[in-house]
Amino acid sequence: MYKTSLVKIPKPEFIVFYNGPGETPEKWKLWLSDAFIGLEPGEKVPLDLIVTVYNINPGHNEGMLEKCEELSGYSIFVDKVREYKKTISDKDIAFRQAINDCIEHNILREFLKLHATEVLQMLLTEWNTEEALAFEREEGWKEGREEGEKKKALETAKNLLALGVSLDTVAKAVGLDMETVKSLAQ
Fold first, then answer.
1. Do 21 and 86 meet the contact criterion of CB atoms below 8 Å apart?
2. What is the pTM of this model?
3. Which structural domain range is residue 32 located in?
4. Whose CA is closest to 57, among 70, 30, 73, 76?
5. Which branch of life, at top level (predicted)?
6. Is there a single domain that holds both residue 88 and residue 18?
7. 180 and 119, same structural domain?
8. DSSP calls for 124-159
């Protein structure tokens, strides 16, 4: 506390374990500065964070997984959850089966025996969130398509009106109400 000389500290390492469904390399780096707004290409920032990401899906970084039983077990457990979710439509049953299968095969056995209910609730919450987000995206795409179609109809109506086509014909041709066509004509 009272020293005037530099106190050395261990070099920090920031690590993320990736077990998502996407195909990714064994290892890659992420820079926090990639998310900064207004950063010019090549511009250096006073502080950045570099994170090393390791893919822990089955078949990736096996040497690392062999050294850590819990991490390996987690990787296998997540894979089992995905496997059962593909074959069993009822998520609750699929997740329970994955938990029971892992306990039976001594994969995270003690942890899952103690926390099976919490793990099940977490899985159900996570999968419901993913489904809700997928539904929301689909709704957004639908709204975007509808908005695009309406924009196209308005553009087509303007072009037809500019060519001197009657208001009634334009309304029928592009599927707009007469009020909208009249306002476009003005």
1. no
2. 0.60
3. 9-67
4. 76
5. Bacteria
6. no
7. yes
8. HHHHHHHHHHHHHHHHHHHHHHHHHHHHHHHHHHHH
